[in-house]
Write a structure and sequence with these properties.
By secondary structure, the chain is α/β, with parallel strands linked by helices. The longest helix is centred in the first third of the chain and has 26 residues. The structure holds pyridoxal-5'-phosphate.
């Protein structure tokens, strides 16, 4: 992705901080220059400024959400964001099921010391993609349940943003603490949203899929959260995978899945939720049950999300890891990609150096 739109334009506060640390803005056309700034991870002043920039971006997003969507979110909460086209393989459904699990747990154990979280979704579904629309309906119903429960006291908020587009994206990436990149392994060619989040100082929770693999390689396992079935095991898994077993045996999973059919959530009589339920547990003549391994990855995702939320409580340590993500994002600039294409594939030379 291009650092002009996704850092300089979208996140002027962070762009300023980087330029001031470097003493110049050469990173704008040569993102690898950010690497030189890694040493500032131990400079508490710089890290505190990074925290202040993130906080301002969260307030800016909160104002936008208030104005356009009519909702109030807590800017001191963790902003956990999944924004991308709505597709079964991208597994917004898995994220929503895990939010339900966290909701039920919080009702049982109100004194748990996890930070408050705002879960934001943004996505469009292709016009004829019925199941994608069912998932949007499901997320909206989860939001209705969680947001209006007085027991929760705003410690979990959920919102699905209508009409996700680049203008929303420019507000959302800079405000994110957590980047959700949870596609079924082997299904995402690369992704670019994952890169935009990284460059804007969010930590990734994701599967070993697409460019998440390169991101994890670049920042190290200690600066991101990787979970889920690995691609080399996935084929084997499919030979014996039985989502009904997960449904019966993974602690807490049944109660989340059952909200689709037990009256906890309503699809307004459309049959959408029964269809989602059947898709997970029974499949159909043209598809096996749970082909996107939602129930298979649930437990590892939950465990990893718990670690992440516990880590967030150490504000400075968290922000230092965000800084490492930012300054190592150089290889994900489209300038690098296009230079490689020009040299290796098109075999052309540039007319003039980029200024
Ligand atoms: C970056 C971007 C995408 C692509 O997101 P992925 O997570 O890579 O699928 C889609 N829509 C908008 C508006 C974007 O800015």
């Amino acid at each position: 992705m291009t650092p002009r739109r996704w850092l300089k334009m979208a996140n002027p506060g962070l762009a300023d901080l980087l330029t001031r640390c470097a003493g110049h803005d050469k990173w704008v056309t040569d993102l690898d220059q950010l690497q030189e700034l890694e040493k500032f991870k131990d400079d508490d002043d710089v890290i505190r400024r990074l925290i202040a920039v993130k906080r301002q971006n969260k307030q800016r997003l909160a104002r936008q959400l208030e104005k356009i969507e009519g909702i109030t979110v807590n800017p001191d909460a963790v902003f956990d964001i999944q924004i991308k086209r709505l597709h079964e393989y991208k597994r917004q459904f898995l994220n929503a099921l895990l939010i339900l699990d966290q909701y039920f747990k919080l009702k049982e154990t109100p004194d748990s010391d996890f930070p408050p979280v705002v879960y934001l979704f943004g996505a469009k579904a292709a016009p004829g993609y019925f199941r994608a629309k069912s998932i949007i309906k499901f997320i909206n119903e989860v939001a209705r349940l969680v947001n209006h429960d007085p027991d929760i006291k705003g410690r979990i908020q959920v919102h699905f943003i209508a009409n996700y587009n680049v203008s929303w994206a420019e507000k959302l990436f800079p405000a994110a603490d957590v980047s959700e990149q949870i596609s079924t392994v082997g299904m995402e060619a690369s992704g670019t949203g994952n890169m935009k989040f990284m460059m804007n100082g969010a930590l990734t929770i994701g599967t070993c899929d697409g460019a998440n693999v390169e991101i994890a390689e670049t920042v190290g396992d200690e600066n991101c959260y990787v979970f889920g079935c690995k691609v080399e095991h996935f084929q084997d898994t499919q030979n014996y995978y039985n989502p009904k077993w997960q449904y019966e045996h993974v602690e807490g999973l049944k109660r989340c899945v059952d909200t689709l059919i037990d009256g906890t959530l309503s699809d307004g009589g459309t049959g959408m939720f029964q269809d989602l339920y059947n898709g997970l547990l029974y499949g159909s003549s043209w598809q096996p049950a749970d082909p996107f391994y939602v129930l298979g990855d649930f437990d590892d995702y939950r465990h990893t999300r718990q670690l992440l939320l516990a880590d967030y409580n150490d504000e400075m340590a968290w922000a230092r890891r965000c800084w490492i993500n930012i300054v190592r994002s150089g290889r994900f600039s489209s300038d690098r990609t296009i230079q490689e294409y020009a040299a290796d594939i098109w075999q052309i030379e540039s007319l003039a150096p980029m200024v």
